[in-house]
Amino acid sequence: MSSRPEASYAPAPTPLTTPTFGQATTGKVGMWIFLVTDAMTFGGLLLAYGILRAGNKQWPTPTTVLGIPFTAVMTFVLIVSSLTMVLALDSAKHGNAKQAVRWLLATASGGILFLCGQVYEYRHLIREGFTLPSGNFPATFYVITSFHGAHVFTGVCYLLITAFGVSRGKHLENGANFVEITGLFWHFVDLIWILVFTLVYLIP
User: Fold this and answer.
1) pLDDT 10s digit of each residue in the chain, 204 long?
2) Residues 6+ away with beta carbon under 8 Å from 108
3) How many domains does the chain have?
4) Strand 24-25 and strand 20-21: pairing?
5) Which end of the chain is more exposed for a tag (fewer CB within 10 A), N or C?
6) CA torsion through residues 22, 164, 149, 73, sign
7) CATH number of the domain that 124 lies in?
8) Sign, Cα dihedral of 159, 161, 167, 169
9) Which residues span the domain enclosing 98?
10) Cα distance between residue 145 and residue 157, in whole Å
11) Residue at 92 is within a domain
12) Separation of alpha carbons 200 and 64, rounded Å
């Protein structure tokens, strides 16, 4: 009978993975839940705008008060930023961190340009007497657009944080899940603006 001790084998460590909920990560599910609740908030604001407008026959025609061509350019910039976000995610999924950072910064730049345009628009409208206490139209206009602007600002910060992480070799694992979650928020912001632009600016 051999006296040699039997070798003990420890189980191989399990690789760390991101927790999932079905096919989606918990982070992605959390973002979707947040976006649904946030969409309800925007929906409530737009519904209030519609009710106030429908009940006021003296409501001014938005196209005669607001600068539609300028805002259309701002809208185009925001739509293009959605495209650059798609390119950023594609680069991240292919492991190209340098290219992903470039597209993320381009997306953030689009958001910054939009915010600068919004500040310019506000200054122009206020000089024309279109102020918050001057009626229901300006009141609802500033509440809705500034609330969206706060989301754009948050999105820009989110994009810059993501770009910084990617530049340091992070956020590329698990199919660039972190970058994808950032993109979900940014696409939501863009989609909401299209609704705001249509309902508040364009409908006569």
Assistant:
1) 445 544 444 444 444 455 554 467 888 999 999 999 999 999 999 999 999 999 888 899 998 999 899 999 999 999 999 999 999 999 999 999 999 999 999 999 999 999 999 999 999 999 999 999 989 999 999 999 999 999 999 999 999 999 999 999 888 888 899 999 999 999 999 999 999 999 999 998
2) 156, 159, 160, 163
3) 1
4) antiparallel
5) N
6) negative
7) 1.20.120.80
8) negative
9) 68-202
10) 18
11) yes
12) 12
Q: Look-up: residue for tokens 């594609």?
A: 90
pLDDT, one tens digit per residue, over 8-22 is 444 444 444 555 544
The answer to whether residue 54 sits within a structural domain is no
112 belongs to a structural domain: yes
Q: What is the total residue count of the chain?
A: 204
Tokens of 43: 């929906």
